[in-house]
Amino acid sequence: MLQVNDARELMIEQQIRCWDVLDERVLEILREVPRERFVPEAFRDFAFADFDVPLMHGQHMLRPNVTGRLLQALEMRDTDRALEVGAGSGFVTACLALGCGSLQSLEIVPELAELATRNLAHVGARNAEVICADAMSHDALAARYNVIAVTASMPVYDPCFERSLQIGGRLFVVVGEQPIMEARLIRRIAEDRWTTDSLFETVVDPLLNAAAPPLFRF
């Protein structure tokens, strides 16, 4: 049986690096944050697998390769102020916290917010705060951030998060519906200008309470 550190290194080399995640700082973050601590006990054997690990209330952890691409795209700096939408069990939260100066994470499911808070305390992520709130209506969006990571998909793109970027800030978001969604990186380059880069195709859980596309009618 593989030891935990060996399994983690295989995840990094065979899943993450092979998905064009080549930033050594990102790879080191993924080595340092113990993913197995954030996986429910029943799925601990799948902690490092290319697998949508189930969480409570029908939610899932992001796959390791998607997490790696997210972290690399955001180009985090130690001084960055960051916002995460969707803490889940707290793994991406812990990775973001290790790469930035301060992090606020909004999680709409109370049980997941509590779980993420416990997990972050366990690994010593003291610069991260999890708040149980609906990101689509929370006053955190009145602030400005260098980095925003939306870990759930938006069936229809809503510009509410890009408006909360500092000039020069970066937003990671997944847009669309199954079977194909598009991961995007959005940069704010001026007070009234943003750029959008298409990163890759994926499928992740939809953001609760996000706008849905209109139903087709004859």
Present the secondary structure layout.
Elements: H1 4-16, H2 24-32, H3 64-74, E1 81-85, H4 91-99, E2 102-107, H5 110-123, E3 128-132, E4 145-154, E5 165-177, E6 180-190, E7 193-202
Parallel strand pairs: 1-2, 1-4, 2-3, 4-5
Antiparallel strand pairs: 5-6, 6-7
Helix pairs in contact: 1-3
Q: Could you describe the 3D structure shown?
A:
This protein has a single domain, classed as Vaccinia Virus protein VP39 (Rossmann fold, 3-Layer(aba) Sandwich). It is 26% helix and 28% strand. α1 packs across α3.
Summarize the structure.
This protein has 218 residues and is of the alpha/beta class. It has a single domain (4-202), classed as 3-Layer(aba) Sandwich (Rossmann fold). The protein has helices spanning 4-16, 24-32, 64-74, 91-99, 110-123; strands at 81-85, 102-107, 128-132, 145-154, 165-177, 180-190, 193-202.
Beta strand % = 25-35%
> Strand-and-helix sequence, N→C?
HHHEHEHEEEEE
- DSSP strand count: 7
Query: Low-confidence runs (pLDDT<50, min 5 residues)?
Result: none
Distance between the termini: 57 Å
Under the CATH scheme, which architecture would be assigned? 3-Layer(aba) Sandwich
The chain-level mean pLDDT equals 95
The residue fraction in helices comes out at 25-40%
